[in-house]
Amino acid sequence: MSVRVQLFAYLSRFSPTGQEKFELELELEPEATVGWLLSRLKIPSDFEKMVLVNGRQANPSIRLADGDDVFIFPPSAGG
Length: 79
Prior knowledge:
The chain is mainly beta.
């Protein structure tokens, strides 16, 4: 299955190119989860990040599906 992944801000250091906004298409195993994807990208589990899958917040146990859009970015603060 294929998913599209976008990394933003300081998380771009985990992209192969190091670009500020990085997008890539990955082929994954059919059983892949968000946690597995984060591990494949070598993003430490204790690193502050937000993950959205198709516009919805996702935890590491969420299973990915073919065609999913995954956005990984630092949490924002404000008020």
